[in-house]
Design brief:
The complex is a heterodimer of chains A (about 350) and B (about 375).
Chain A lengths: L1 H6 L6 H15 L2 E3 L9 E2 L18 H11 L8 E4 L4 H4 L5 H9 L4 H7 L5 H24 L1 E4 L20 H10 L8 E5 L6 H6 L6 E8 L12 E5 L5 H19 L3 E5 L17 H16 L5 E4 L8 H8 L1 H12 L3
Parallel strand pairs in A: 2-3, 2-4, 4-9, 5-6, 5-8, 6-7, 8-9
Antiparallel strand pairs in A: 1-3
Chain B lengths: L5 H18 E8 L8 E2 L4 E5 L6 E7 L2 H4 L13 E8 L5 E5 L4 E5 L6 E5 L9 E6 L10 E4 L6 E5 L6 E4 L5 E4 L8 E6 L4 E6 L4 E5 L8 E2 L12 E5 L9 E6 L3 E6 L8 E4 L13 E4 L6 E5 L5 E5 L14 E3 L1 H5 L10 E6 L6 E6 L3 E7 L8
Antiparallel strand pairs in B: 1-28, 2-3, 3-4, 4-5, 6-7, 7-8, 8-9, 10-11, 11-12, 12-13, 14-15, 15-16, 16-17, 18-19, 19-20, 20-21, 22-23, 23-24, 24-25, 26-27, 27-28
Classes of the chains: A alpha/beta (about 350), B mainly beta (about 375).
Chain lengths: ~350, ~375
């Protein structure tokens, strides 16, 4: 009875929409667990975002579960808001990555030289966690299209190229999500990727260089990795030491007109916290407040234009995992404020 | 390496950057306007560097990045760069620079005459390094003098270009308080106090004079133990600091890459030796340097053969010389040096941090100065 009503021509009631949506949800979300009843900000998280790393490895793997931990502990969210992604299938990944790379990657045939450039020794665990992370970004984007806003507790692996990984990035989650969600011609969606990680989103820029439906926008520090830059659709390279006020002005100078001219159907926002002054690798000087204002500004600008936005945590590098995780949770806190203020 | 375009070069640096996240605990890179051949500690947190161009050169006292020095709360220190805290100008090149412990005084030599310049490094009220005096040398050889700071409480400086002209000068009075009696005009590679009254005069020939300033007779030099290297081999040396484990050892390093460890009381004999993994094809002997780690048992650093600094663990060395592999090699200067057709960059100097076991500073001919805290991969669990 209800299924028929979805396809009928009469005006849809709210109930119809809800039920129809539930069925659509189950069919369309790449999720292990969905939360259609919860009215709070959707958070995407998987316990398998982490894997074991060799002792003393510098990548702060522990940060992902800690981000969720602090959001729950500080009562920013409840666990009812947490959606759990499916692992990204090889088919999904092949929208961006070459079959050869995926085959080598999944089956452990990455040579030592290639592994070195990624910063990770190969393991089945690392493959699995990267696939879940990518799945998380895809799910966040799908939810955003339905709900308007969604935030992953991971993501932002923008240094991965179609056939190789680099700089702690093995699969390009933003690219996979953007590619999947632009969909097929002739009704391709337009996706804007706003990458405010302190490092240029070189992989993403390269992947979408010729793709007019995906616009890549990166604000990064010129002197940070990678020195070999790619060409995003819009690159803004800033000087070392830039602080809150100037940084925010820089974002404000570009984002509104980009939204108004490109008119995306979806925004993917990489809210990397490595522009923070305490970041061990980033060369900028943002404060916690600066990051919060930045995230609030980006999300509000997008949401108030009626455009959905999905966020990923992006880069952050510190040996104090808890401090880093709290910093990463800034975007979720800002998103909660946007959710409330915009009556979502 | 051949011609490389800018993008390929950037790739090399990017690769090394990712690698460095694993191989260093800390790494800070600084670019001086002009290269230095000297790095000298003036406190636990400051070093002096100086240019060596033929005419006017800057002397700079640099404060190490605070981020490096903070053990806890690393995040609280925004300063990641070296900071110039004092500066001055020298009329000529600076080839040797020594800080007099317990003072704000430094002594330099220009590498082309035997005299010394004495400097006041400045205090909190001034950021200027000023020249305050000169000390005459004895030699007219046109060679530069080596310098060593005295270890006694009076500010004294030991200096000389050859074994026949070594003087110990009191800086307060300007008078010489000791002259080394030697007829052999053996060019020196270094001078070093091993106690208040005993110093080593290390010659390029490999001879080392052990001199007790209280004794009246002329000291006899100890030649280096015979090695495979032929004639024309030059030597540098370093005595391990009295605070370090295994004190009383001297490491000699030859221009052919042979390293010899001797007991201080028997410099003619060899406790152990090794052939270092270095390129012998260099043209500048002056910058080759070997030094004991002040806070890491049995470790030495060697530089000047190429653009790298190598750390060796000598505990595994045997009496018979064998090829040794470095425990660690700092390649930062090679990777980040100017590219394409320029000459391969050479490391001009290195020093160990006096207390932190694996922290060193190094400088290269392209003006780069690095401070690095390396990870002992052999000790890390896999």
């Amino acid at each position: 009875m209800y299924i028929k009503q979805i396809f009928s021509k009469r005006p849809r009631t709210k109930l119809d929409q809800l039920v129809g949506a539930a069925i659509t949800f189950c069919r369309c979300f790449h999720a292990e667990q969905i939360r259609p009843e919860d009215n709070g900000l959707p958070i995407v998280h998987h316990s398998k975002y982490v894997c074991e790393l060799p002792a003393n490895h510098r990548f702060p793997m522990g940060k992902f579960p800690r981000v969720l931990h602090f959001l729950l502990k500080d009562q920013v969210i409840t666990d009812k808001q947490v959606w759990v992604p499916e692992i990204a299938s090889q088919h999904l990944l092949s929208g961006v990555h070459t079959d050869e790379y995926l085959d080598n990657f999944i089956n452990g045939k990455i040579n030592e030289q290639e592994q070195r450039r990624t910063g990770f020794p190969w393991s089945e665990g690392i493959v699995r966690r990267c696939r879940y992370e990518t799945g998380g970004t895809v799910l966040a984007a799908e939810i955003a299209l339905q709900r308007g806003l969604a935030c992953s507790t991971a993501g932002g692996t923008h240094h991965a190229f179609p056939s190789y990984g680099s700089g702690f990035c093995l699969l390009n989650d933003l690219a996979v999500a953007a590619k999947y969600l632009t969909g097929k011609s002739p009704l391709k969606r337009k996706v804007l990727i706003v990458d405010l990680d302190v490092h240029q989103g070189d992989g993403t820029a390269f992947i979408f260089k010729e793709e007019s439906c995906v616009f890549t926008f990166s604000v990064h520090c010129g002197k940070n990795f990678p020195l070999r830059k790619q060409q995003s659709d819009l690159d803004v390279s800033v000087e070392d030491g830039m602080e809150d006020k100037e940084y925010l002005s820089t974002v404000e100078a570009h984002l509104p007109w980009l939204l108004d001219t490109f008119r995306p159907d979806l925004v993917l926002y990489d809210a990397g916290v490595d522009p923070h002054w305490e970041d061990e690798l980033g060369r900028l000087r943002l404060t916690d407040q600066g990051l919060y204002q930045r995230d609030l500004y980006v999300m509000k600008s997008v949401v108030t234009r009626g455009v959905p936005v999905a966020t990923v945590i992006g880069g952050g590098y510190s040996r104090d995992i808890d401090k880093l995780a709290i910093r990463h949770s800034i975007v979720h806190r800002a998103a909660t404020q946007v959710w409330r203020e915009c009556g979502m | 390496m051949g011609e490389m375009d800018a993008a390929e070069f950037d790739d090399v640096v990017d690769d090394w950057f990712i690698e460095s996240l694993k191989t260093y605990k800390d790494l800070h890179v600084y670019q001086l306007e002009h290269p230095t051949r000297v790095i000298e500690w003036t406190s636990g947190k400051t070093v002096c560097v100086a240019g060596y161009r033929s005419a006017k050169n800057e002397l700079l006292e640099l404060l190490l990045p605070l981020k490096l020095l903070a053990e806890e709360n690393k995040g609280l220190c925004a300063e990641r760069d070296f900071k110039v805290v004092h500066g001055g100008f020298a009329e000529g090149p600076v080839h040797c620079l020594r800080h007099i412990p317990g003072t704000r005084c430094a002594v330099t030599n220009d590498g082309r005459s035997s005299g010394l310049q004495v400097w006041d490094l400045g205090g909190d009220d001034s950021d200027v390094i000023r020249r305050t005096a000169s000390v005459a040398g004895r030699s007219a050889s046109g060679r530069g003098s080596r310098i060593a700071a005295g270890l006694s409480s009076d500010p004294r400086v030991l200096h000389g270009a050859e074994s026949s002209d070594v003087l110990l000068t009191d800086l307060t009075s300007g008078q010489s308080v000791y002259k080394l009696k030697s007829d052999a005009a053996d060019p020196l590679s270094s001078l070093q106090f091993v106690s208040d009254s005993v110093f080593l005069a290390c010659c390029c020939s490999g001879n080392i004079y052990t001199v007790d300033t209280r004794a009246s007779d002329a000291p006899r030099p100890s030649p280096p133990p015979a090695t495979g290297g032929g004639d024309g081999v030059l030597w540098c040396a370093d005595a391990s600091p009295s605070s370090a484990g295994g004190a009383g050892r001297v490491a000699r390093l030859s221009s052919s890459g042979e390293a010899v460890l001797s007991d201080l009381r028997d410099l003619g004999g060899a406790v152990s030796r090794a052939r270092l993994d270095v390129l012998i094809d260099h043209h500048n002997w002056d910058d080759v340097k070997v030094s004991w780690a002040p806070a890491l048992d049995d470790c030495i650093a060697a530089s000047g053969f190429s653009g790298t600094v190598q750390i060796y663990d000598t505990s595994a060395w045997a009496a018979e010389p064998a090829a040794a592999r470095p425990l660690f090699e700092h390649r930062g200067h090679v990777v980040s040096s100017q590219r394409a057709d320029s000459l391969p960059v050479l490391v001009t100097s290195h020093v160990w941090h006096p207390e932190r076991p694996r922290t060193l500073l190094s400088a290269a001919a392209d003006g780069s100065v690095h401070v690095w805290d390396w990870v002992d991969q052999s000790a890390a669990a896999c």
